[in-house]
Each structure stands twice: as structure tokens, then as C-alpha cells.
């Protein structure tokens, strides 16, 4: 996920988890990993996501993924500072800047 702070171009705004365009499409790797981990509850919750913040987004002192170790492949490959990230931030204005919720 992009909120680890490890990437210098991530503003930790959480927009990529708060402003989804739809539920993340599961890849075979996601299905296999969750089956191996015994986490069947994840897929239905992600499928039910419709424009709201991801149900696995934890909002406390900052935005955190509560299933970080088994987050969907599409989340793993979302590029901080990439075109989708920059577009989200551009549309959000101040909300997309560090320290804003
Ligand atoms: S939208 Fe971009 S800057 Fe904001 S948390 Fe996601 S990756 Fe980081
Ligand atoms: S699964 Fe985690 S990384 Fe993916 S959208 Fe939800 S909170 Fe964000």
C-alpha cells in the first residue's frame, strides 16, 4: 500500500482508499493467498464497496490498511505519485495534501 511513508511521493492522504472507483478486481493471486491464509471474509467486504471508503481502511492518527499483509494485488501495484494518484490529488485539492483529512 501507498501509505507506509516509505515512498517519498506518497502524501499519506488516503485518497486512493477513500475515493475508490469500484471494488478492486481480485486476481488469482489474491484468491489463492486468502485461501491459504484462511481469510474468506475479505472478498465479500471488498465486493460490497461502492464509492465509499474501503472497509479495511483504518482511520486513526493516519490512514492505514488493516489488511496490509494480504491487501489486494491492485492495491500493491497502485503507484504513489503515478498518474492515478496525481489525478486523485488534483481533484481533491487541499484534501490531497499531507496532513489534511
Ligand atoms: S492517493 Fe497517492 S498520495 Fe494519497 S495515499 Fe494514495 S498513493 Fe499516497
Ligand atoms: S485493501 Fe487496504 S490498500 Fe486496498 S483500498 Fe483497502 S485500505 Fe486501501
How would you portray this structure in words?
- This protein starts with 14 loop residues before the first helix and ends in a 9-residue tail after the last helix.
- The model has no long low-confidence stretch (mean pLDDT 83).
- Strands 1-2 form a two-stranded antiparallel sheet.
- The radius of gyration is 13 Å and the shape is elongated.
- It contains five helices and two strands.
- It has 101 residues and is mainly α.
- The longest helix is centred in the N-terminal third of the chain and has 10 residues, at 28-37.
- The chain has one domain.
- The protein binds iron/sulfur cluster (2 copies).
- One iron/sulfur cluster binds at residues 2-3, 10-16, 80, 85, 88-89.
- The site of one iron/sulfur cluster has 13 residues, from α1 and α5.
List the helices and strands and how they pair.
Layout (H helix, E strand, L loop, with lengths): L14 H4 L9 H10 L4 H6 L9 E3 L3 E3 L7 H4 L6 H10 L9
Antiparallel strand pairs: 1-2
Query: Which structural class best describes the helix and strand composition?
Result: mainly alpha
Please outline the major beta sheet.
Answer: 2 strands, antiparallel
How would you spell out the order of helices and strands? HHHEEHH
Task: Tell me what portion of residues adopts beta-strand conformation.
Answer: 5-15%
List keywords for this structure.
mainly alpha, two-stranded antiparallel ribbon, binds iron/sulfur cluster
Amino acid at each position: 500500500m501507498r501509505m507506509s511513508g516509505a515512498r517519498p511521493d506518497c502524501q499519506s492522504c488516503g485518497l486512493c482508499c477513500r475515493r475508490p472507483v469500484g471494488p478492486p478486481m481480485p486476481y488469482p493471486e489474491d484468491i489463492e493467498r486468502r485461501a491459504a491464509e484462511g481469510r474468506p471474509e475479505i472478498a465479500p467486504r471488498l465486493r460490497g464497496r461502492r464509492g465509499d471508503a474501503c472497509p479495511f481502511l483504518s482511520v486513526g492518527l493516519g490512514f492505514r490498511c488493516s489488511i496490509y499483509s494480504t491487501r489486494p494485488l491492485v492495491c500493491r501495484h497502485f503507484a504513489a505519485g503515478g498518474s492515478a494518484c496525481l489525478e486523485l490529488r488534483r481533484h481533491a485539492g487541499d484534501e490531497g495534501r499531507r496532513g489534511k483529512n
